[in-house]
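Something for you to look into today, if you have time. I want to see for myself how the chain folds. Leave the record below and I will have a look.
***
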Amino acid sequence: MTKPPRSKPLLRDTEAPIRSRPRKKRNPAQPQLLFDPMPDRVEPALAQLKSHAPKGDKWSWEVKWDGYRLAVHIEPQDIRILTRGGHDWTRRFPAILEAARALGPATMIIDGEAVVLDAEGRPDFGLLQQSLGASGKQAGNRASGAIFYAFDLIYFDGHDLRGVEYRSRRHLLDDLLTGKDGGIRLSETLDVEPAVLLEHVCRLGLEGIVGKHLDRPYRSGRTGDWVKIKCVQSEAFLIIGYEKSSASPAGFGSLVLAAYRGADLVHVGSVGTGFKETETVRLRKMLDKLRWKRKQPPLPYSGSADIVWVEPTLIAEIEFRAWTTDRKLRHPSYKGLRDRQDNADVFRLD
């Protein structure tokens, strides 16, 4: 009986060590990426304000949603809903949280905007602010009726997509959310000339449109990869004081507003319209608790109005038509308070 041949050892000291195959360059159109750790937080990409849409066919257009910018982080054991400033607001959006659970078990980070729709299906920032109880005694309320409109996919199934161009990220997002109509919905891209789209959007009373360059990766900050064109401008400003009113002793005549220039506060004018009487009384009580206790105002001021200065704590969403030549708001109107944690949205003049 012949003996079976002696088996060779699996590894020999004299043989070359076992190595993996060299990594191939990623094909963005077919993102079979190696595993990437999921980032704790991604600084959001922001849209630059433009008066006209850029020319060319390299742009994708959608509605600009009037709400709170959020990132939904989904993992098998944990779901987090983060604001633009990085605050964890998971428990404040129960419907979005429930919809996020249904999208698992894949890991992902979805970029989008939380809104509350009015009776006609339009986003209403005032309704969202009321549901959250922003900055008042009811701060921490749950916006149970809020819907998350998703417009980008930053991370998916172990792959960091920030280096992938927008058209591929959008293709993955469409596959993930098309047909979903619950707490998380797809922000539809609209295949129409931006000028025509803007006209229709403005007629419907919406805020404006957003364009995204199809060939660009996801880059944080205002890089020009995303642009926004607004029907009426709307930004967040700090309230730094108020002018008293003889007609409404319990309220005020106008709120004094400020923006940032670098680390400094700069006066950008006052707003005296857009308030209901109950809102002026409520705001006056809040402002009187924040009275400025120092001799000098919280910023350089050269006006002649008799102003009661306050700590720059409350953040107001203000709608306005344009800027004057001396950098003041033209025809401003009050829309509502933002949450104090949402200070990342305060307008910066630089």
Q: What stands out?
A: Helices lie at 94-103, 125-132, 166-177, 194-203, 277-288. The longest helix spans residues 166-177. The chain has a mean pLDDT of 86.
